Amino acid sequence: MADLRIFSYLPNPRVWKATIAARFCGVDVEVRGASGKELREWLWDYDARPLEQGERVSLSSFARTGRVGLIGAQLFKTDAFLEAQPFGNVPAAFGPDGRTGIFESNSIMRAVARLGETRFPLYGRDAYEASRIDSFLDVSLVFARDSQIYLLALSAGTIDATIHARAKEAFAIYASGLEQALSPRRDTLVGDCITLADICFAAELALFMNEHARAEQLSARGLDRILHAGIRGEYSRVFAHFDRLVDHTNFRSDLKPYVEKLLSKAAD
Fold first, then answer.
1. What CA–CA distances, in Å, run from 79 to 14, 32, 51, 59?
2. Per UniProt, what is one GO molecular function of this protein (predicted)?
3. CATH of domain 127-267
């Protein structure tokens, strides 16, 4: 039995925060899920699975209306799922008992680090390092909120200048702080080894790169890409660190194919 089970839409860089962390500290993480559209046909539960023929009727008492990402969709969430996951969102993680729910990707990642803390200090070596890591994770949440609104608007075709400007400012604040944290020549954000701060940063930037796949929507509204051709020059340390992490053994299998696919869209 896995130490932690995660249910989510896939692919999802925010889920990979946990799987990357698991490789560092030897934790067994099981991931279940499918594309966002396919999750409409799944039973949302600890034992999440595709619905069988006719179950949409027999399980109608579990029908709920999606609010984030799958807005307005009919989703089938068990009472046990909502008891463990009170906000009803994915990624949704569970302890082995199936009753203890953990939600929000940074918290799921922290759970992995705590489970494997004796094998690798992903959460720092003392209370001060752990708190500094938390500082980076909290700042990432602020950026992630605006990036999610931006990416969902791009996906839905509802992007406008206001949403774009807010995301652009959020990225500039986030990247500027990271650039400072990595100066003059640091290889990690906290301490002298990779921590949760680095994992979170890599996953959030990889997710934000989905902007590359929506260049036509931006152009049609007279908006420029936030991750424009010269962005690496503006934040050279940030992107050099990102490149190092993507090529790292414990990041590569999750992030590299995803990033390369999005970069190919940017080139097109």
1. 25, 19, 16, 11
2. transferase activity
3. 1.20.1050.10
| 92-94 and 101-103 beta bridge pairing | antiparallel
Cα 138 to Cα 144: distance, rounded to the nearest angstrom: 10
Q: How many CB atoms lie within 10 A of CB 16?
A: 26
Structure letter (DSSP) for residue 213: G
Please tell me the distance from the alpha carbon of residue 172 to that of residue 163, in angstroms, as a whole number: 14
Q: Are 75 and 67 in contact (CB under 8 A)?
A: no
pLDDT tens digits, residue range 221-267? 999 999 999 999 999 999 999 999 999 999 999 999 999 999 998 87
Domain spans of the chain, in order of start: 4-115, 127-267
Give whole-number Cα distances, 111 to 35, 123, 150, 202, 258, in Å. 25, 10, 28, 18, 24
> Per-residue pLDDT tens for 70-119?
767 789 999 999 999 999 999 999 999 999 999 999 999 999 999 999 99
Q: Distance between CA atoms of 266 and 13, rounded to whole angstroms?
A: 18
Residue 67 has a pLDDT of 74
Determine the 3-state secondary structure of 44 from DSSP: strand
- What is the CATH topology of the domain spanning 4-115? Glutaredoxin (3.40.30)
